[in-house]
Amino acid sequence: MSLSHIRLASAHARLARSAIPAWRHFSATSTTHPDIEPSRLTVTHTTSPRQLPPSSKLLFGRTFSDHMLRIPWAENTGWGAPAIEPFSTLNLSPAAVVFHYAQALFEGMKAYRRPDGAATMFRPDMNMKRMNDSAGRLALPTFNGDALIECMRQLISLERDWIPKEPGHSLYIRPTMIGTNGTLGVQPPTEALLFVICSPVGPYYPQGFKPVALYGTTDAEYIRTAPGGTGAFKVAANYAPGVVAQKAAAKVGYVQNLWLHGPEHWLTEVGTMNLFVVFKGEDGVTELVTPPLDGMILPGVTRDSILALARRHTSGGKQLQGLPSLLKVSERPAGRLVELFGAGTAAVVSPVDKIGYLGSDIIIPTGEDGMGPVSRPLWKELVGIQTGEIASEWNFVI
Questions:
Q1: Which of 154, 256, 141 is nearest to 192 (CA)?
Q2: 381 backbone dihedrals φ, ψ, rounded to 5°
Q3: What pLDDT does residue 7 have?
Q4: What distance in Å separates the CA atoms of residue 238 and residue 216, rounded to the nearest whole number?
Q5: How far apart are CA 170 and CA 387, in angstroms?
Q6: Which of 168, 208, 334, 373 fits a 20 to 30 Å CA distance from 86?
Q7: Torsions phi, psi of 147, nearest 5?
Q8: What are phi and psi of 98, to 5 degrees?
Q9: What is the model's pLDDT at position 31?
Q10: Is 212:257 a contact under the CB 8 Å cutoff?
Q11: pTM for this one?
């Protein structure tokens, strides 16, 4: 079966929407109340410090560092004083709106230890922009992104020993915001909590890259998002409905879902990752293709970074060794399939070797190391930047 039967999501195939989304008019933030102020930050040290476990014992999202950051918000008073405190549970009312109306959002980002010992965060400004967009979509309070970055910088500086030193390891950072007022009723929250926790993690593929098999999930089975929905925002409610779809894919022998939208079965995302497809045209030009950001696709930081590196390569800027010299970046499906991969914070790049589609398997070529001719040099450059081996303006030094 040819991949021509399934297409990349395209802007002209979607419902037209206003240039200014309606949700922007309903942000809970008031300009008359205080924003996040790093100068008010207090630090309470744990009385029971722990040691970073051996890297062989690290499982993603299972181990957390000693401290966390908390910043409360109230409709009448604005953002309260930030506080770094010992990692602990949250005390919430059973009527808290986060439990009943899913008024919750989060971000995923990483801190790395450079060869010279310094610690860096990778493009935190991008995460702050997306987090504010998600907050506005849920009528949660927005905030000064630079101020939150400074608070996180101080948290990560305190937790520096929790950043593993081994290659491929990092400190995963999870900023989260939830509605906390205990009053039932579907309306903007009157109270909220922004908190940040940290988790040391190892490489996503510790034994080397392993291409995954995807199951093409159509709208007739399950749907990830729809035009005008929340697919372009990192909100908690997007993720729980996808678990049953992933279980269904696993039941028939596939690792993850390839989300297909509409009667044309447009390709949108891979599980919880952005999607990239590489074609080889009859003219010999390699084409890197990804769905556009038109309301259904999450604006991933890794996605943006891959596109920026590829466009820099094609425009005569920094040339990436191993990346085809005849390369173009676009949003149209065409030509002979060369490779397909997902892109996200956790895995950075996740190659795909098979797609189950309407009862048949589409085989995707991969190299001996599990990667392809385009994903390999892009992954190498991106990881080099993240770890500090390659100098870049994208790194925020802690």
A1: 141
A2: -65, -45
A3: 54
A4: 18
A5: 9
A6: 168
A7: -65, -40
A8: -60, -35
A9: 55
A10: no
A11: 0.88
